[in-house]
Amino acid sequence: MESMSKRHLEMVQELEENFQMTMQENQDCTVQKIRSHYQNKLNTLRKILDIYQEKVEKKKANWEAKVETLKAQNELLLKEQRAERKRSMEEALQWHREKSKMLELFSNRLDALHSQQASTLQELQMARQEIGKVQEMLVVSTQEQQETTGEGENLEIEGLSAQQQTRDCSDSDKPLEGAKARLEELKESLYQREREITELLEAERSPIPPVPQPPCGVLLSLVIHKAHEICSAVPETRALLDQMIEDNRVALASARNKLDRLKNVQEESNDREDATDKEGSEKYNSNLSLLQETVKEIEVCQIALGCIKNGESPVMNDCAVSELEDILGQEASQTTGGVKSAGQQLLLLQDQLKQEKEEKKKIIENYTSERTLRKKYYNMVEDMKGKIRVFCRIRPASRAEAAQGGAIVVEKIDEYSVTVETPRGPREFQFDKVFSAEASQEDLFHDTSRLIQLAIDGYNVCVFAYGQTGSGKTFTMVGDKEQKNPGIIPRAFNAMFDIMRENSSKFSFKVSAYMLELYNDRLQDLFASQAGEAHVHTQSHGQARRVEIKRNRKGVVFAQGAETKEASSAQELYALFQQACANRHIS
Ligand code: ADP
Ligand code: MG
């Protein structure tokens, strides 16, 4: 019986051992299978992620290159514009110089005309006085002659020879003849003067033809403008101008009359079909063209004088330009053409600039939409990485640990796994990322910083550290005391405010914070319990205000009753954080 029960027991033990072994094997097998399954999945996901990231990088590079070329184009265009502006300024300067020259010429000519006119008038006056004197002399000599004739009759009666009488008579005629000759002479000089005056007046009637034509049609308006200024400043000139306009009007009317008459004559002769006189028709044609030219010239004078009087500038639209071209002839047309082409070039460049600007705007729009898309993909990638990511950081052994002869039992195998030595042998653990003891604070932050952009884009982001006391949570999150190696929190504050600064032209940001501590299963408001402020946050019955975690209608989790503080810079926010840290329960 005893041996049987012993055998039974042995059998049961054997069975149990067998069962244990099989179970262990099965478990190991299943674990292995699950692990490899997830590993495969993870690998595929990583590959997809890599592809996406590559694509995003490529697109980014593409757009950046486009923006660069656009910038270069813009630069080039700006350079061209500057050169064009410089050129037009130089041209304007040249025109100004020529205008001054023209004005000087004009005023010199006017001065010369005035002085000539004045001297001629003086001479005329003198001539008139002389004529008066000569006439007086003439009257006196006629009287003398009459007296002498009377005396001769008496002498004849007294018996003097007829011959003597005649001689005496001819002697007394001598001064009369001299006076007559003098009169003729004076008359001749008077006529001469009158002719000169008429010529001068003729010259004044058409003051522009004697002045050399401006090399540039545009100058006309400047000259007119200046002339108007002179006319309005000097009253004599105004009177002269009025006279000139009147004379010009008369001259224009007579020239037009002549032209009409000439045309009528030609028509009549055509009616009579008297085409045999070839020479006559040629003469007529040259006369006609001469007359037409004169009419044109006088018309220009009329327009210019009108403009000078009213102080207007001739309008240089296309129609007016063509009119002026007609009137002024080819020279003016060439110069106005030059001006037109320069203006057209400027307009063309402006058009080009406008087009380029529009294109740039379009590209920027494209770039923005592409960026939005990139962000969307990025978020997708982030989602694929998993909403909860667990990182593992191995801290180096402290001096005390090394002094005690402690061994390192954790080892990083690859980017994603670590092994830990246990009493039952090494155990492997998988993470989303593993940081070795050599990893710096920057390395840690590198993978966290992207989450800050996400937070600014409107996602809820939570970063937290867990581990036993002394494992390095505070070092990782805050950094060392002297902040020689700042941790995730101060770095995140800086990154956050950097992003906000970059986008300050597009959005307005407000940063507010609250800070809580979970202590003895109750939430403590670390801002509220700050020195000297505690009484504000206590309710009437003496109890501290309760802070409760709630969810609002939009599903956003918030701490009801917690005090919120605003910060306008990373430094301000970090100061708030430090103040709150000082209120934590420590022992
Ligand atoms: P916990 O906050 O988890 O209790 P601590 O952050 O205070 O741990 O770290 C304990 C000690 O180890 C501190 O003296 C800290 O400076 C040091 N320490 C932690 N992590 C590191 C690291 N990665 N490199 C150097 N020293 C570290
Ligand atoms: Mg700590």
From TrEMBL:
GO molecular function ontology, one term from the record: microtubule motor activity
Protein name: Kinesin motor domain-containing protein
Signal peptide: none
Chief place where the protein resides: cytoplasm
Binding site for ATP: 467-474
UniProt entry keywords in alphabetical sequence: ATP-binding, Coiled coil, Cytoplasm, Cytoskeleton, Motor protein, Nucleotide-binding
Source species: Astatotilapia calliptera
Coiled coil regions, renumbered to chain: 12-87, 176-203, 339-370
SUPFAM superfamilies, sorted: P-loop containing nucleoside triphosphate hydrolases (SSF52540)
Basic and acidic residues compositional bias, start-end: 272-282
Annotated GO CC locations: cytoskeleton
Family: Belongs to the TRAFAC class myosin-kinesin ATPase superfamily. Kinesin family.
